[in-house]
Amino acid sequence: MKIFIIAAVLAASSIALALHAQTAEHPVPRLVENDGRYALFVDGAPFLMLSAQSNNSSDWPATLPKVWPAIEYLHANTLETPIYWEQFEPKPGQFDYSQVDMVLAQARDHHVHLVLLWFGTWKNGSQHYMPEWMKLDPQRYLHVTNKTGELVDSPSPFATASLEADKRAFTAFMQHLKNADPERTVLMVQVENETGTWGTLRDYSPAAEMLFEGPVPAEVLKAMGQTPATPGANWQEVFGPEAEVNFHAWAVARYVGQVAAAGKAVYPLPLYVNAALRDPLKPGAPGTYESGGPTDNVLSIWKAEAPAIDILAPDIYMSNTQAYLKVIDLYHRPDNALFIPETSGAVHEARFLFSALGLQAIGYSPFGLDYSRIHSVQPGQPDAQNAFLEPTAQNYLLIGPMMRDVARLNFEGKLQATAEVEGEPAQTLHFGNWDAVVSYGSGGRGPAKGNPEPIGRALVAQLKDNQFLVTGYDCRVDFRPAGTEQQRKSGNIVVGTGQTPSALIDGKWQHRQFLRVEEGIYENGVFKFMRILNGDQTDWGLNFASEPEVLRVSVATY
Ligand code: DGJ
């Protein structure tokens, strides 16, 4: 008997130790900020999510087999996939964890991380993923009421019963994740999906009207930098034409913030919300975009009202270069890490991964990249069915093996990346004593003309004062002496126009020479030297075509 007890105690303590070791090895992923730069720490070090989002209805036993081959083809390290409230809580308070467990197990089998999307109260502004028992009881689980008193296809942010139900379900989901995922397969969770309302600016129910007529809460005034002339001023008085969208954003953020806080209290994974955007260049009047979600004009309201949400993230479906760049600029803030949870994986947009990396993005995830919607595969044309994956696959093939270094160098502020802009054949990235000059469509010695289509992209990181990691596609990179900080301040620098990048600095020419250009490959996250490039391969700069190539470059002046 005694022996049994000792054995049982030993077994129990070794299980406890093993569990402890496991969780100690895999700390909970966390978002870390340093000097306004962010990194997602996974297993204790910065990690870059090179992800893809599945189609909305793909997270089922019947369709997941059509997801994994696409993820593999992409070389993605993360899959974003939904968890459906309607599946998770078929009866009030009864939770079905089978879908969560299934996707966790399959992700592990495929050595891929997950970002799980909680399709809860809101999905694209509607309540379509609420369980049937909620849909059938609209008196209790309220819709938004529009100006003319009709119920619209959007959940009311003032529906207390819906809020309590969502909090309870989301908490059960997070608690289960905590128990079921000591490996930390799941890196982040998205709370709701594209929250807000289409077709009406806000809820006009009597309860909402009362709040709209009441004073704007102090935290909203502070977040929006407003000091009303009259204390206790209401929304209309404070915000004029923006009153209704600001009010709805406050109400939705307050609701989602409470759901997020409840889940985070049981399992503190990084949480984010995604936004259906408004036009970043010419924002239309309220009503021309989804009202209430974290659009760029109300980010501060969301930050103040939903502090349990770590990131406000833009879903970017924009092919216009300036619009795309403006969006990432708007969502890259000292109080907000840049993360792109949805975007188009189309050929002309794929280069924007590099623009995002230039703003220290912690992750990027084109939408709808699985085979669930491919119905007509042409026999004998294997590539045709992969055309929609190709641009993202090309990116991930290059960046995937080096993603730990990319994330770390970005977090340390040593990395810059950029994408081609129409009509701008050359761009300059500044690194202390050196400028990296990126050009597009440079043939031989001739001037850069830009690529026929703007598909070029480049990434440069400073490893030492005179050593750089360089990669990209469809571009040329070279280095030009930039002088010391003091010399730059004095403005006494003239850029040379000869073939070799040079600059006249304080009356003395400094020309770039390559000391050593090493071509290598990343193996197990480490750059491995393959050969030295010289002669035709470097005489006109470092040229990157459409094959993945990574260089470690040492430069000097003469
Ligand atoms: C944005 C949403 O967030 C996604 O779930 C999906 O509906 C896409 N739009 C469009 O297909």
Which properties best describe this structure?
alpha/beta, eight-stranded parallel barrel, eight-stranded antiparallel sheet, 25 strands, 28% strand, disordered N terminus, binds (2R,3S,4R,5S)-2-(hydroxymethyl)piperidine-3,4,5-triol
What does this structure look like?
The protein is 29% helix and 28% strand. The chain is built from 16 helices and 25 strands. The strands form five sheets. It has an eight-stranded parallel barrel, surrounded by six helices. Strands 14, 17, 18, 20, 21, 22, 23 and 25 form an eight-stranded antiparallel beta sheet that branches. Strands 15-16-19-24 form a four-stranded antiparallel beta sheet, with no helix packed on it. Helix 2 links the parallel strand 4 and strand 5. The protein starts with a helix and ends with a strand. The N terminus is likely disordered. The structure holds (2R,3S,4R,5S)-2-(hydroxymethyl)piperidine-3,4,5-triol (DGJ). The site of (2R,3S,4R,5S)-2-(hydroxymethyl)piperidine-3,4,5-triol has 8 residues, from loops. (2R,3S,4R,5S)-2-(hydroxymethyl)piperidine-3,4,5-triol binds next to loops.
* Distinct small-molecule ligands in the complex: (2R,3S,4R,5S)-2-(hydroxymethyl)piperidine-3,4,5-triol
So what's the overall shape? globular
Total strand segments: 25
Instruction: Give the uncertain stretches in residue-range form.
Output: 1-12, 15-19
Specify Rg, calculated over alpha carbons: 26 Å
Give the helix/strand layout.
Elements: H1 2-25, E1 30-34, E2 37-42, E3 45-47, E4 49-53, H2 68-74, E5 78-84, H3 85-88, H4 98-109, E6 113-123, H5 132-135, E7 143-145, E8 151-155, H6 160-180, E9 186-193, H7 206-213, H8 218-223, H9 235-239, H10 243-266, E10 271-276, H11 299-305, E11 311-316, H12 321-331, E12 339-343, H13 352-357, E13 363-366, H14 390-399, H15 403-411, E14 415-419, E15 426-431, E16 434-439, E17 457-464, E18 467-473, E19 475-481, H16 485-490, E20 493-495, E21 502-505, E22 508-523, E23 526-533, E24 542-544, E25 550-557
Parallel strand pairs: 4-5, 4-13, 5-6, 6-9, 9-10, 10-11, 11-12, 12-13
Antiparallel strand pairs: 1-2, 2-3, 7-8, 14-17, 15-16, 16-19, 17-18, 18-25, 19-24, 20-21, 21-22, 22-23, 22-25
Helix pairs in contact: 6-10, 10-11
Residues 56, 124, 193-194, 274, 315, 342, 367 line the site of (2R,3S,4R,5S)-2-(hydroxymethyl)piperidine-3,4,5-triol.
